[in-house]
User: What shape does this take?
Amino acid sequence: MKKFLAIMLSLVFVVALCGVTACDPNTPQTTEQTYDITVWVSETAGVVELTQQQINRYNETNEIGVTFNATVEGVSESESATQMITDVESGADLFFFAQDQTMRLMEVGALTKLGTKSTQTVKETNDASSILAAQVGDDLYCYPLTSDNGYFMYYNKATMEGVNMDSLEDILAKCVETGTNFSYELEGSGWYNAGFFFATGCTSVWETNNDGEFVSVQDNFNSANGLIALQGMQKVLKSTAYVNSSDAANFTAAVPSSVVISGTWASNTVKEALGDNMGVTDLPSFTVDGKSYHIGSFSGNKLLGVKPTVDANRAAALQQLAMFLTNKDCQLERFNAFGWGPSNLEAQANDAVAGDPVLTALAEQNKYAIPQGQIHGKWWDMAKAYAVGTKAAEMGDKVALQAVLDTYQESIDNAFNVKEVWTYIGKIASLNTDWSTDFEMVQDAENANIWRSKDAVVLADGDEFKVRFNEDWDNAFGNGGGNYVVETAGTYYIVADVVAQTITLEPAA
Amino acid sequence: MKQLDTLSYLKLSKIQKIGYKLASFFCAIPKWFVGLFLKLWGFIKAIGLKIADTCVDIVKTFKNGSWKTRVSFLVMGFGSVMFGQWLRGLLFFAFEVVFIIYMIFAGAHWLSQLGTLGTKLPTTEDVYNPVFDDTVETTIPGDSSFKILLYSLLTIFFIIAFIYTWRVNIKQCRINEEILASGRKVKSTKEDMKAVLDDQFHKTLLSLPLIGILVFTVMPIIFMILVAFTNYDASHPGNGYANLFTWVGFENFNLLLDFGGGKTFAFGEILAWTLIWAFFATFTNYFLGMFVAMMINKKGIRLKKVWRTILVITIAIPQFISLLYVSNLFADNGVVNGILLKLNIIDKEHIIHFWGETGQNPWLPRMMVILINIWVGIPYLMLITTGILMNIPQDLYEQSRIDGANAWQQYTKITLPYMLFVTGPYLLTSFVGNINNFNIIYLLTGGGPDNPKLIVDGTIAGDTDLLITWLFDLTTGASANYKLSSVIGILIFLVVAIISLVVYNILPSNRREGDFS
Amino acid sequence: MMNEYKGQDILEFNYLSEEERHDVIDLMPPADYCAQEQVTAESVKESATAVEFKPAKRHMGQKIKNRISNTIIYVVLCLMSIIWLIPFVCILLESFRVESTSQVGYIIPKEWGFDNYINLFTKTKFLRWMGNTFFLGLAVSVLQTAFVLSMSYVLSRFKFRGRKSLMNLMLILGMFPGFLTLILIYNLLNGWGMTGENSVFGLILVYVASSGMGYYVSKGFFDTISKSLDEAARIDGATRFQIFYKIIMPLAKPIVIYTILTAFMAPWGDFVMAKYIAHNSSAGFNVAVGLQNLIATEESKATNYTMFCAGGVVVAVPITVLFMLLQKYYVAGVTGGAVKG
Assistant: This one.
């Protein structure tokens, strides 16, 4: 009777059997000089074909006899990083991505460190900001592809005629007057809106170690200068001309924009939309309390990454191919075909590159830009939040704007800057806590090893707790490794010797 | 609450009646919960008893059974073959062999690592390569926590399947012995084969669909519940190329309890809007769809097929195209605003923010998504209700017309009760579907406009975000916070399940029919 | 021979505990659905006649009244048709616009042409994506129909232990936020080599495997087919398979077509699951992922937008045609089914 269930269950076996095949992830070594590889490049029309040609050229010209059978796929840079993060093992061998993804890729181990000689070559031939982008800790983990991942201002010369393009206020006024829009993606992510903070001299410095882990962030956005930045940003956010977008198609929207803040990738669309009326320049300045601030920006890069592999020959060959694809000639070819600004110093010196109006505007803006470096992926969303808060605040309401900065500071602190203090945590009846909240302790003024609770605590029989450092259980103790259990109820200061790892209860007077 | 008898109920005024119904509805909820727990307890008890019974039965079978049966304890299927059921026996035996091979070569390997979820980190080494004259970094992948968890889970499923089959194998022997003892014949293989298409036909039909659900629905859910007890996130991807993840007990739940004002507030706000959305999305579609169907069905209306086809065309275009287009149409700088500007209905200072603006009234974008949802949903509802409307016995209408009922009275007294009765369960499933309606919100507003009051861990939620889109942002955002989203996912699941189970079991049509589930 | 089987069933019944026996008795066939529907209709009729309707005013002739209401209905229907068709027409117009490829602020193209369609088929792998989706749709509709019909037929016709718990369980499972499990399903399929280029097979498996949970509508339909047919056939000595195949299936044509139709349509619009499983391999895209990839960034949106719209139109054609041809069955199927779910 139950045989059929048995048949059914044996099918479950088939499912489980596949666990056998997935048991050994090591791929065998190979000495052949032909490699099947997958390459993920930008989805921009033509990039796939050009990359295929370049790889073919490498196959023909290299003296070592390596041949690559490449499958080139065109996917957006963000998709490329996302799918690598989903699954490194079956991801692409070489992949294009934007700089902001570097740390996420490092976290999942999707990038291979460059060899000593390659590192030297990359450092010698590329501009400083691109090397910063490729570097994590002391080593390079990516190959710079472009140095054009920044933004500046496109505008319609016809509607903006006679306007001082260096004054944000004038531009906004003209937009309102002509019934056109001002497109600036301030509420999209921190990438565009941080420029206002850089304008007022605020900085955000991120430090990483050699494993790609963040050590600290020094951020002074929550300051008097930050408040000025938000006041400037609010001028845009509250303007009736403001549109939260960086899409160059806004020039031809039903309610058209006269100004769009965007990057090099938009240039073809703008040309198509505006023709001879296309204007391009650096970002304007805003004025708060009579002082003028030039809006800053991030200058960033597109990068090429190589997936880790166990096979030394394959790794070496891939490294060689990556070096080839990011060399001067390949970068120039990409500039000619798609207008991508090269990171290679020699290529930058090329006449056509130096004379390109879009890249000139970018270079102009780069004087006010800060190199993007390595920023934690979570930060972009947090930085977006202050623009949203500023938009919601009343115009010029400094108290509300300060509250926005405080919220931002709180997010940052919670996420990145763990306080370096000892805390106690446990099941304490009078505090109504059950291992859910940490209570800060204070370091003794005389003996640095002694930490005591800030206030006296009412402890009942059977209350249990431990003390820990940085809210981390790896650095915790109670009664030795176990919990400290209260034996006599009373009101005490909790005193911990963090070196001897002992806890004493000091009755409160 | 005092239960009224029929007579005193009928004496109540209309408002009192409604009040009474509402009161009894809410009074039924605690009772229902008590019932649920009793049922659950009964269920657990029954399972316990069943297992105990089974063990006793197995021991008895061994004691009382013949040597054929006893050998079957070790060599599965031996008894069946000896009793002449060779097909059954061979299948049992094959299953055992496969199970043992699997356990030796893979199962044991995965299970042994389940406790730690892997210990070996990937190692890198710089190797000098003379051909290329450069050093290269090679990576030997370490353990993959993800795979360990996944394949351990599959192995556990497999072990359960094996134990069950083993038990069936023994039970078969006992049944056969009993049949032989009573002087009848055991079923031959030929008869077994026949039964597959006859007496046991339902098992044949159910086997594949149930395996599918087991592997692709039940197992993933169990997996995600397990993830809630690990530290699986972007910095612990457990993919063999970076950090492993491991068990952390209830720490993630503590994080959630530690929610504090902001998070609880955000969760509450988003939950409230989700429920409001689900309610309106379900009922606006339902009533308007019915209304449209009634209009098209009305006697004397021509071109019925044309009207229906026009509505149905919208189903044919994939939503990600049509909704994207609609979203652009109503954008701040979109065609609708453009036309209104040209017609001087609005001026540039007062553009209509159809999709809302931060810090402004959130109800306009919310109303918009409900309206667009009507646009999406009416064609389906129209099709569904068309047929049901035609099923209502026409003589009901005839009779009421003779009694002097007008159209509105006919609708409220005949059409609506009939429809509500018949489609009650459909309404519930579509309510649940709307709670988890990802497409519309994601494609139309992406959850926006952002609301600065709804910041959780630096990720900001918007006024039209549903729990599901919010969860999507939390999962796919930069943090890829799988552990926390599993916890929140479980919470959402509980909320939705409880709401729908309560409503479902109190639904009149369900109670009376008893049969539908 | 028949008696022997019965004997065994009874034997099994004897093994059940007291509570389980109770369960089984509980699950004995409920009153025939059709009969029950009759009762409902009766009760509605009673309540309808019990109410005293106020006599409607009959100053106007019924005919004139009717004509006015019909006119209003025509106006409403025309307005609705316009509202419902606008986006479709706009997308159609976009697809014939050739003066620029990006989004613009007007609806009527300035220059007309087939460039977008030509580009779609020559410059992208659209044909491949169409082929993938078509194959996917066909395979899914066949397999899913088999799964759904088996499931719903059993739940409608067979009374066995655990039936009700099974139905409750499936109701609850359907409420779990699905995309949380995407990462697991991807890894599972990846282990079997069903992702990337082969993602079509992976998708077939995923769609079909869980489809048994969508049994509601077709179970409702089977409930409406009178059980006396089964019993009569059973007395004539037909096996259960023969009843299912020879008696029920021919009657269930509308629900079969309904199931095929819904199963065939689903893969055309799925971009979340399909994208995950295709893992950036364009050979494994379905149309939804392929078209979405065309407008993934602002840059590519500017160059591909009109082509994207053309893709939408091409996708809509087979589905519309299929729908127009099979509308009758769709309505019949969903009507029979929605009666109970």
The CA atoms of residues 110 and 217 of chain B lie 22 Å apart.
